[in-house]
Amino acid sequence: MRNKTLLFCLVCQVLFAIVLSSGSAVFQSGRLVGNKIYNSSFETEISTQYIASYNNYNGNTYYGSTNQMLSISEKADVYNTSFRILLKFGGLQATIPAGAVVISAELTLTFVNWRGNSGVDTCFMTKPWDRSAPTTPLRFQGTGWAFSNWNTASSVSLPWTQPGGWADCDSRASMSNSVPGNGISGNVTRTIALEPGLVNEWFTGSESSNHGLLLRANSPGSFSMFSSSSQLIFQRPSLHVKYSTSPSELPASPTYPVTVVSPGRTLWVSSSLGNDLTGSGDSIFPVRSLRRALDDALPGDTINLMNGSYAGGLAIYRSRLTLQSAPGHWAVISSPLNDPIAAVNVLTVRSTSQFGVIRNVEITGGYYYGIMFWTDWGNYATTALNVNLAAAAAHYLLENVRIHHTGSSCVKMVMKVSNITFRNSELAHCGERFRTYGHGIEGVQAHHVTVQDCYLHDIPGAGIHLVGGSSYALILRNFISNSGFGMNIGFTTDYDLFDTIHNPLLYENMHAVVANNIISVTLNAGINLWAAYNASLLLNTIWNAQHLAQSAILIDSYQHVDAPKAPVIGCSRLTIVGNILTKATYARVGPILSIRTSGFNSSSPLLLAGNVYFDSKGVAGNGPWQWAHGAMFEDDRDGLTMVGNLTAWKLHCHCDAGSMEANPRLDRRFSPLACSPALAVVDPTLLAKWPSSLLLDFNGNARQALTWQSAGAVSPSVILQKPMPPMPSVLLTAPAPSNQVGLPVAYYDTWTWPFGFWLGRVCRDLYVDAVSGSDAQTFNYQSNYSRPFKTIQAALISINQCDRVLLKGNQTHWGHFGIYRPNVTIMTDPRDSIRATVRCDNVGKSPCIIAGDGFYDGAAELTLSNFNLVMSGKSTSTCIQLNEGYGGAYSPYWRFYVENSGRANYSRGFSLIERMDISGCALAGVKLSTFITGVVLSHLHIHGVNTTGVELRNGNNVTVRHCLIENVLGSGVLLGGGSRNILVEWNTIRQVGGRGVLVGSDNTEVQYMDTEYATKHPTGSWHDAINVTVRNNVIAHTGDAGLAFYSARDVVAVHNTLLDVAQSAQAAVLLNLSPKTLNNTYQTMLANRNISLANNIVEQSNMLVNGNLPMVEARIMQVTLARVALPPLFPDPSSTGNCSGFPSTSNSNAINQIMRSTQGEVARRLTSPVLPRRSDGSCRHFPADNPWHRNVSGLPLHPNGDSIRSLIRNGGHLHPDFGGGFTVMKGSKAMFVPYGIPITTVNTLPLRGQPGVPLVPISIAASGYPSECDYPLLYPFPSTAAVEGAYLNCPDNPCSGDRHVLVIDNSTCQLYETWRSFPPNVTAGRGWVSDIAVKFDLSSNALRPLGFTSSDAAGLPVAPGLVQFEEVITRGFINHALRFTGPNSRAAYALPATHFAPAGDSGPDSPWMGLRVRLNSSFDCSQLARAARVVCVALKTYGGIFADNGSPWYFSGEATTKWLPYVSELQDLTRIPASQMLVLDDGSCLCLDAACSVTECSSGASDPNARQVYSAIDSDSQLRFSHNFYYNMAA
Predict the structure, then answer these.
(1) Cα radius of gyration (the chain)
(2) Could you give the CA distance from residue 251 to residue 1029 in angstroms, rounded to a whole number?
(3) pLDDT surpassing 80 at residue 269
(4) Interatomic CA distance for residues 1499 and 444, integer angstroms
(5) Which of 609, 690, 1134, 1406 is most buried when burial is the number of CB atoms within 10 A of its CB?
(6) Distance (Å, rounded) from C-alpha 274 to C-alpha 308?
């Protein structure tokens, strides 16, 4: 055996100890020392082995045991055998340079200890013992418990001074070390520091002076040690010495006796030079994998990773470990994003591990997390038991760590994890698989978490997310940028994750301190405070927050609907002092600080002070303020509701002393300029209770004591400065972040369980008899069971790899059941001629058969064969589901076993589901659900299924052949989610409600796709199906397309027969798109590419419900998410580099503006000198760049303009629908009503001694549109407000019609409009009632939501399109487009319209809402009277906008009796022929559905901010259609 081992070493072991004048050497049997194989280590057991009753338990053992393992034990009594080990490294002379002195020495031994902690004592021997085996070893003649050696000359055994030899130890040094138990593999490697002076004597003296070492257990117990005969070199005893000839390195002479303390072992790992089978883990002979190092490492050890990449998917079980890159090295630990089995996390810190350090490494990938800190929470039956008994990982330091591109959150901490510190680390691109979810650091009920001086960026969720009752967090001096949220200090957590013993009120977060952080560019809140208790936000800078929603700081509650009584938990005891909060110029309008409904306990202290608020759209200045101009504050609590400016906020909350609204004037490093108003706003007494170390600014500078402090994270001090962006210094010098594909999980231990057990195991058959079987059988590893089982699940629990479960034929066996081991077969017993039936009744959401997680990496290479499967009752799931990686051809460990067992033929390389009848499935018949590789579905009959026959979501190497799929409500076969390498052949698919074969899917979320392939593989893409062959199938009687391709690539569909397809919708062959949301602001769709359709028969149905449909169709689709440009991360030096040109900074004297009173009113009590007002003080109708003010005189004509105009009306003339009037009878009295639409102007603020008009409620009629109204429905409508077509208080009969009410609040420049409006005197005390009520901010260009109507059919405001008396008669010009109507309209709108209402002829040539027209420039306006001439000129310059259905070419105007003297002038408009009106092409796309998800675009320019439209094919060259036969049955 020894010769075989040496040969193995000579072939495989290339490392050797380099002997230099100053250096180190390793002595281990089988290794090269210099240029020679070292083979001079010796060991033997000595024992109290019982020999005869008279020997007093002092038997002898013979020398030179060739056992691989030797025993060590100390027994508590003399009636049991004790063992000790003698160990010697011989032949050391002349192995180090002459004159060199040993300066350190370490002995590395590998023990096997499965039990609890033990220990070993080591000593230097002073007495010789047998050093060479006798030619013919004699039993009992040699080293033993009583005798040290054999004197050949005198033929006698020489005794130890005392039996056991310990009395012959050198008294100058003693060593003692622990040998902890290892319940996983048993192996425990310990490095024992030896006294270097005594080891030096082995090298400098003669061989006769080297008596070696003696090892004994230092407490009762037993364990074993690998000897020099071990087959694995790294397990053999090893002596590592360092030597030097330099006097400066020589150790001081010790004062004996000494007790040598062994430092923690340093394990060296090299992915390029190491070897897991021969490496011992020292720097010269490193191991190769991090897995091997973690298996060997013991508490107190350090793992040094040398340059290279290391596979993750690993767990840390032991405490007091340090994992780091070796000095001068940089290591990357990576896992793939697509392995949900073995690489769920890159590193998992188990609940048994505490006081660890992870530093100077890069961690990337992982299906979920980069690092997960684990807990035992959930292992116990009740919350109380979990609280009291569950253990969790704790006391870890992560320092100079880069974690990036993880599947979900970069770091996850779960219940009871505590004392985790993150320092000087970078966390980025978390959520790479989820894309729209994933936090930087996530903690659920995590306590005493510290995050300081870290850089967190490009994160879809929150940079830091601490919820579920997390407590005592310290978040200091971090930079968070480009994230969905900055920080979530509390959010939403399930009730069962709370510690309800210590946190009975269910606070999401308690006692958090967030200080001196910079949060730059967030889509939502900069800091969320949800159900937070005693949180303190101090001196933070929140820059360009709330881009899409929420507030810079949002205070909210959470209702636990899953908890008893469903409590609503708000925040309590909040401190928000010295922060800078800013919004970007183009951020969504909203409050900069908001308290939501129930968000804060009003009886609790709320301290806000010294904050600086800035909305980049501008500040309110010293005068009154307007909506959406300046910082806005909101309180939405019941009975306390308000929205207003800072002054209103201070009066409302009695807080925020010293705070101001101002441009903070920061430089690129976020430091305040010399003129910054943020320099001295914080009262130092408010910070006095906090330690100075906590108040160090973002750069680590101390803030001056006893002076007013600057707000924000960065103080003016420049003593210390971080770079921008603030990458930690160690990471600045590290290599660029790795972008390589994550490394698959690495196994190396072919000698441990279950590898060796499987090698010799015989496969067994386990029988299941539902009538006479019994589940009460003792588990047997060899599956030797004496009788059948009763249930399939019991048999599956009792099997092992390669066993078969044979079902009794002609019986019903009950499911549901799970398969959790590899290489398992389930089938009807071959001896039975009638199939067994598996029946799943009332199984709820559980699949009837599921493959999942379990022993040895779970289910893999399965066989399901020759039985029937029926689902019925209250079942809502699939019949067979291979789920999330489990059930395919391989799991990582199964692949390792197959490749290393020498049994390549043992594996067929795929799972097989065959010869089954599957029916009644509530969802799919067979579903391969994400990351399933290598499956063959053959000879299946799938029928009576509610969704899909066979569904693949991200499957790979899957074959579906010889199957009959029929009577399926959904699609026959669906191949989506990025499925690759799929073959569908020789199947019959008929009577399906959806598509026959769908190559791709309507929509598969990116998180279920293979991100690793899509982003890193050379041929990768986000296509929904790749490399698919569909051939020789019969597809008949489908509701939708026979064949459909949705964002598919590299597809061949040949020799298929499609009969009577597309009965109700779609084309017979359809090309469509599958949208992919790649982040929170970007969605894309990939065109089909390289699609071949050849030699097919395609017969289209004659049963079409919607008329003729195309035979082959390629569709377009618009994304639902518009791509959003984010604001800059840093203040712009060009605008903040000096202190000139800034507006005034304070609004401390601003008028109190309250938009919601304590009675719950939501009025806008706002005035402002900067509102768009005319010289007379009236409000302008929208900004100058509003679409209503667009000069259209130069726009091109629409190519189809004549047809469109004809459907408004070609003949006739324009008609002014205003001026003059009509009479309506009020009883016997004739009432005059002016033509047109009246405008009422009010002031909601007091003016010239007159009180403001109050807000009154508006009720929406049952026939109205409540979902499209602008709430709250409190409008400034006087009871006398004018109603279109009605005299005062005129009812619907006789005053019918549109009954518009238009009210302009001149105090706020808000426009209120209603349609079908009835005043209080008409509604019998119900107040104002209308069918719709909407608001428009006349200072803003904001549109109504897409698909929403208004008081006009087009969703436009009415007032700005009216011809008004003051414009025509007083000013003599009109500067806006005019509203007009027509009798026909199509189902389409163009912005700024937001709604359509098709009427009359609604074909493609009809006008659309928002259509623009203008008067022909050649028409002579001078021939018209003055009033008509003003309108005529406006029609040439600004044109008209088609806004409602009605009479042809009716232009609307203001209803007022002022027109009466000018009616004849207005009538000149009827001299303008309709044929002189030109239809314009303004480049807009038409929205063809309410949400504008389907559009029609002209050749003109399109809105750059519009949602992008994609086509199912982007080039005809991507389609290869040939030799197909097409037939329409209706033809």
Answers:
(1) 41
(2) 74
(3) yes
(4) 53
(5) 1406
(6) 11
